[in-house]
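User: I'm preparing a small set of examples for a lab meeting where we compare how different chains pack in three dimensions. I only have the primary sequence for this one, and I'd like the structure in token form so I can line it up with the others. Please keep the answer compact; I'll paste it straight into my notes.
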Amino acid sequence: MNPFTPHRSSQRAGRNGFPQVLHAEWTTFRTARGWVLAMAASVLVTVSLGLLIAGGVRSTCVTGKGEGPCPAPLLGPEGTAVRDKYYFVHQPLKGNGSITARVSDMTGQIRLPDAVPGVRNVAEGVVPWAKAGLLVRQSLKQGTPYAAVMLTGYHGVRMQHNYIHDVAGGPHDGPQWLRLTRSGDTVSGHESDDGRTWTEVGTVRLTGLPETVEIGLFATSPGALWDMARAFSQVTATFDQINLQGANGSWRRDDVGVGMKSDGKTPHHPGGVVESGDKLIVTGGGDIGPATMEGGLRADLMLTGGAVGLIPVLVAAVTFFTTEHRPGLVRTGPPAGPHPVRLLAAKAAVVGAVAFAAGLTASGIVVSVGLAMARANQNPIQPITLGTELRVIVGYAVLAAVAAVLALGLAALVRRGIAAIGLAVALVVVPCLLATAGLATWLLMITPAAGFAITQSVPVFAHVDVGPSLLEGHYPLPPWAGLAVTCGYAAVALGAAIAVQRGKGRRAEPLPAAE
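Assistant: Understood. Below is the structure token output for the 515-residue chain.
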């Protein structure tokens, strides 16, 4: 006996209202062992692959004390994982005051892919988000509140504060005057082309700013992005026309956040400052901003097996339609069952609901248990809000439901089980697997696989460049936009199938009796 052969409800030939048809289709689904096992297999595959990843990950870091577990991610004032590494030439400022300076030149070094294996390929240049400018912050402790106005490599003047907030100024890439003013808890940033006419870039409030803060000049560069990793880069900025109001001490120099080599004494890619007359030439590397890969293991990694786990769902959805619509099956006489459109709608509701339940079970287990296992193995975990975690878990369940409805619609159009399964897998699963391997990521913008973006757990920030691979946790489309693409495909497929079924229903209607 075929495991997909369903129990036939006697209601199918009787009352044909939608509630009755829906109940009959639910009975049909749950009494077919194959479909139930397919949904169970989906849960098992998704959970098994996710927990295998969670249990096998061991993050290690090399410090001055040797190799060991990586520290917990650095958190900013708003609980986001952040990077806070830069070179700072500064003075303490008590009370209100300001600093003005011109960034007259920016140069740098970027590590490119090695042209000769084993030979470092370092070229002159600056990365797009290299930063040099003026900074005021609560203290030198990493992760503390700050505000800065800066000139960037290719994004003009910006004002940023507390790591995740960014305001664009003018699109300048040449010498630029900058000014940062502190008044109580309020910090304002201005820019000027000539040092006389000033334009405000932004004003921010840093709640709880102490009376004495650190104010000065900084330089940092987030690294060149290639081969799914961030490689070394530094920026060197020349500051002149420096004017500090409210502080008149000597300059202090700090390479904030610099790491040490394995000997625990030698700085790794240190920054520095050179005084030349009235100029300060500051060199720094790192970043002041949100952390992506450096922020720890992500919740969405636990759903890496989700694409493979959808294959049994797609198979069940297709065969749920094709089992009783086999080609060559001859039916005579007027239809005794419900209208084809009503029947298709009921099937879509049943398979969508069952797929949602299976997806919710799988994602709920693998995300919560997987993160607990990763923490138990002393891995740093990317901070995640309750809202984001719920969106990842429930979003995957919605994706499973929508993918099942899409597969059902394709089956109703193609009417060939193997062909419909192959098409559904090619549209939903294959693009995700390719993108995970760093190939053809653009497919996640134009295929139903775009819906996997709903599982993205790392926040997206316009002022942070991200890599082309899903290994960094970023998709080409925002979470809800990606899911909307999948929903659009499902709606079109189901709508077209309904149109086809409606036409068949009309042709099957008996002619009125002659008078």
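A couple of notes for your slides: The chain has nine helices and 20 strands. The first strand starts at residue 60 and ends at 63.

User: Perfect, thanks.
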